[in-house]
Prior knowledge:
The chain has 266 residues and is α+β, with helices and mostly antiparallel strands. It folds into two domains: 2-76 and 246-264, Immunoglobulin-like; 93-238, C8orf32 fold (Roll). It has five helices and 14 strands. It has helices at residues 98-101, 116-123, 130-143, 157-163, 168-181, and strands at 2-13, 17-21, 32-39, 44-50, 56-62, 65-76, 145-146, 165-166, 186-192, 207-214, 217-221, 233-238, 247-249, 254-264. The strands form four sheets. A four-stranded antiparallel β-sheet has the order 3-6-1-14, with no helix packed on it. The chain has a four-stranded antiparallel β-sheet with strand order 4-5-2-13, with no helix packed on it. It has a four-stranded antiparallel β-sheet with strand order 11-10-9-12, with helices on one face. Strand 7, helix 4 (157-163) and strand 8 (165-166) form a beta-alpha-beta unit. The protein is globular. The chain starts with a strand and ends with a strand. The mean pLDDT is 95.
Amino acid sequence: MRVHVGCEFVQTAEQAVHAIVQVEPRPDTESTVVSEMWDEQTVAISTTYNDQYHNLCRRLTFPVGTSVLRYDAMVEVTDQVDDFEPSALEVPPARLPGSALVYAMPSRFCPSDELGTFAFQTFGHEQPGWTRVQVICDWVHANIEFGYVNTWPTKTAADVLATRQGVCRDFAHLAVTICRSLNIPARYAFGYLPDIDVPVDAAMDFCAWMEVYLGDRWYTFDPRNNTRRKGRVLIGRGRDALDVAMVTSFGALRLDSMTVWADRAD
């Protein structure tokens, strides 16, 4: 099926600010970009590169004043829900591939070394593998209150656990951190998620989830929505949100507004 995705940022700079933008679908996934367009009226689109996690990053410079940056795309994705494999097993650290080890370690927003005691006391007795990861998602979904006023840019998973509040990024950070505390590799992912076959109860926004290494591959888990969904368009993945920020600016850049759309095209 095809989904229509995109976003618009209105931002103000007092001096020219260079930035990295990550809003385009990641090319090495099952999704295929059919068409895309950038609005370059106020911001000159510059070069692209792939970072160390193979995410597609775009470099540009915001001029002095207020700028509008708009991206719009039609993307073809699978019409199946996220994979479900309840028999998938955890892999002992000694047998993990080198590419997965980095996602078993602490990171800026996922201090798994700080939450080890909580993780083992709360989830150490659960059946290892898919079941334990799902129990973690169930707990985060049930115990963290969603709200845009309940977060801040530097909020870590430890802060989320302490406040029991946050947005989808915070749900993902906490679940990732708990998994890593139990030696289960988990990575942060974000992108577009259309409201297909689910009730619509809020305005569209970017969505954050996590990918967990079980058996011999990565699986998608979504502690914020806590259900298997269809239509995901992955933008980026990394250790945490620091690696895949929508806009990373090298200077003061005020966000005035952000609009996101993700809808089934047919």
